[in-house]
Automatic annotation (TrEMBL):
One of the GO BP terms on file: nucleotide-sugar metabolic process
The organism's place on the tree of life at top rank: Bacteria
GO MF, any single term: dTDP-glucose 4,6-dehydratase activity
SUPFAM superfamilies (alphabetical): NAD(P)-binding Rossmann-fold domains
Organism: Lacihabitans soyangensis
EC number(s) given by UniProt: 4.2.1.46
Protein name (Swiss-Prot/TrEMBL): dTDP-glucose 4,6-dehydratase
Alphabetical list of InterPro entries matching this protein: dTDP_Gluc_deHydtase (IPR005888), NAD(P)-bd_dom (IPR016040), NAD(P)-bd_dom_sf (IPR036291)
Gene: rfbB
Length: 356
């Protein structure tokens, strides 16, 4: 079978990556979409079982830190485009094991950049290297009238955000130095189906369902800007196809929530869906020791993406959260499979004896 383009998506078995892979495989049958994933604890091929037999989809099991492997993969497929999502993504894990983040997020990204540069040398015209990054590289906000824009100075404050900031700098350096055709996006917090239950929203859904304590860090006053994962995938599609070479786009939902308010909302929604008396789940809220170096507030100004590329979120937060809770309740075996193994060890080391 011959294809118009061959696209490499890294980290496609993870939370956001699986939604991006599904969008590309189903909307662009003329592209061959190659999903490269190491299948770490966060990678799960179950996320893609509905599309994995389509003829334009290929899965490759491998590690972006393995330079020779990455060079071989580029030689095999002669990719026209790369959408790079593979990463260590959890801030708490970066506090206990920062080197894993240096290896995958920095060295892994540089291996991909080198392979693209060498493969596309002398023929960069219709090529594109898309690096998916985070709003956390901008640091934290205090003044409620301030938002992160594309020109906000970098100020990463956790090992995770420092590793992502470093990779962003390398991507832009390869554009400036070698003319690599790159595009970067920095997105706010995602939520939705297939979100690994170490992160706030799925962790709370899982604990509410199981009647376990709901661990709120500090006083629950930190603010995050939540975006439905499918809207992030739609933004990536728009930027990959129509973004300007060398540019950066901020992606966000204009949807800020204090953690405690969000946990209250989830408790009410879960009580309603589970048929519990209202107020039952809120009794599970437990304040625990704060995250070290916990950033206070993130908030994205996505005006550039909306005005230049015509992107807008497709769902309200209420709709997205309701769909998300329904997805978890209707796919409970997905979360049970994940939480039955090593997750238990992680959970005990993170949360036991941490009540503040
Ligand atoms: P995730 O942890 O759910 O998935 C990461 C995927 O990368 C997994 O499938 C994992 O197996 C794979 N992976 C990890 N190390 C690898 C390696 N060395 N080689 C190959 N594959 C490897 O992450 P996510 O939440 O889906 O985030 C995806 C990307 O989006 C990341 O780059 C993250 O920084 C960025 N991002 C995430 C959010 C968010 O709210 N989750 C927001 C903005 C940006
Ligand atoms: O902003 C984008 C980033 O959002 C992404 O780059 C990261 O990959 C992604 O993990 C996410 O980072 P956060 O640290 O904001 O997400 P997390 O779900 O871990 O935490 C959200 C907020 O909830 C944060 O203020 C910490 C708090 N929290 C989290 C957990 C897991 C709790 O209060 N209790 C918890 O148990």
């Amino acid at each position: 079978m011959s294809f118009e383009k061959s696209i490499l998506i890294t980290g496609g078995a993870g939370f956001i990556g699986s939604h991006v892979v599904r969008l590309f495989v189903t909307q662009y049958p003329q592209y061959q979409t190659v999903n490269l994933d190491k299948l770490t604890y966060a990678g799960n091929l179950e996320n893609l079982k509905d599309i994995d037999s389509l003829p334009n989809y290929v899965f490759e099991h491998g590690d972006i830190v393995d330079e020779a492997y990455i060079d071989g993969l580029f030689a095999k497929y002669q990719f026209d485009g790369v959408i790079h999502l593979a990463a260590e993504s959890h801030v708490d894990r970066s506090i206990t094991d920062p080197m894993a983040f240096v290896k995958t997020n920095v060295i892994g990204t540089c291996n991909l950049l080198n392979a693209a540069k060498n493969t596309w040398k002398g023929n960069m015209e219709s090529k594109r290297f898309y690096h998916v990054s985070t709003d956390e590289v901008y640091g934290e906000l205090h003044d409620p009238s301030e938002f992160f824009v594309e020109t906000t100075s970098y100020d990463p404050r956790s090992p995770y955000s420092a590793s992502k900031a470093s990779s962003d700098h390398f991507v832009r350096a390869y554009h400036n130095t070698y003319g690599l055709p790159v595009v970067v996006s920095n997105c706010s917090n995602n939520y939705g189906p297939n979100h690994f239950p170490e992160k706030l929203i799925p962790l709370m859904i899982n604990n509410i369902k199981n009647g376990k304590p709901l661990p709120v860090y500090g006083k629950g006053e930190n603010v995050r800007d939540w975006l439905y994962v499918i809207d992030h995938a739609r933004a990536i599609d728009a930027i990959f196809h129509n973004g300007k070479n060398g540019d950066t786009y901020n992606i966000g939902g204009n949807n800020e929530w204090k953690n405690l308010d969000l946990v209250h909302l989830l408790c009410d929604l879960m009580d309603q869906k589970l048929g519990n008396p209202q107020g039952k789940s809120k009794e599970l809220i437990t304040y625990v020791t704060d995250r070290a170096g916990h950033d206070l507030r993130y908030a994205i100004d996505a005006t550039k993406l909306m005005t230049e590329l015509g992107w807008n979120p497709s769902v309200t937060f209420e709709e997205g959260l309701s769909k998300t809770v329904d997805w978890y309740l209707n796919n409970w075996d997905w979360i049970e499979n994940i939480t039955s193994g090593d997750y238990q060890k992680y959970y005990s080391s993170m949360y036991e004896n941490k009540t503040s």
